[in-house]
Prior knowledge:
Keywords: Lyase, Metal-binding, Zinc
Distance between the termini: 27 Å
Helix content: 40-55%
Strand content: 5-15%
Binding site for Zn(2+) 2: 102, 134
Shape: globular
Radius of gyration: 18 Å
Strand order of the largest sheet: 1-2-3-4-5-7-9-10
Protein name: Fructose-bisphosphate aldolase class II
Active site: 80
Structural class: alpha/beta
GO biological process, one term: carbohydrate metabolic process
Amino acid sequence: MHILRNVLDQAQKNGVAVGHFNVSDLVLLKAVFAAAKKLNVPVIVGASEGEREFLGTRQLGALVRSIREESDFPIFLNADHTHSLPKAIEAAKAGFDSIVFDLSALPFEENVRQTKEAVEALKAINPAILIEGEIGDIGTGSEIHDKAPDLTRGLTSPEQAKQYVDATGIDILAPAVGNMHGMLKSMVHGEATKHLDIPRIAEIKKAVKTFITLHGGSATNDADFHKAIAAGINIIHINTELRVAWRRGLEEGLAKNPDEVVPYKILPSAVESVKQVVLSRLSLFNNKPPA
């Protein structure tokens, strides 16, 4: 039986990170699973509230569960950026392995109060579920931005992180450490990368002694990824890079088959395009040679 907490414990001991990749259709799910299986490393697939609404929360839960059971493979499902308790409860009842209960837009005290209540309610449904909380400002939207927002004022302090973890009882912390959701147009073309506050990550990890997630990982400098993992990052979220690869692969499939109308003959190009991105990221996060 594959248990997410055990996988994260082992990753931490091995000095690697578990890759988390958002999915909003079967193309993305097939690509993520194929890449993880090829490298034989655990993987988390995530779905935001919007992605779950499109796919169906219970349907996605059943699909990932069937893949894990039939393949006997450590693939896990996370309810990404969930902003209300009813939506979190829906995911917990659908069998999700973890939930990001994100009230980071609220004042700190209110975030703490509601997150603590959510942890208690969700653990009552499934004691094994992992609950992630978020503090700080990493922007919104896994999309392409014209310019970078100023997130320097929203960085998470070690003191605040410890207070938050101790007060809420969360299993995983998502701090703001220079990361940002989405990508800039210059990043799409490979002209720029994001840089992380590595000392801040190390200080937060020392203060909280719990699992830490890096959101907004797309287009982050490769060397920064290695340093962030060494400093204590356990899970790394990639979304926008996959969306860009999905679109490029789809355009390639349509260009190669301009008269084709059968979806399963057009979409393999999108699957392969996304798979290559996931292979690259999982290799990096797990210290494995490129596949």
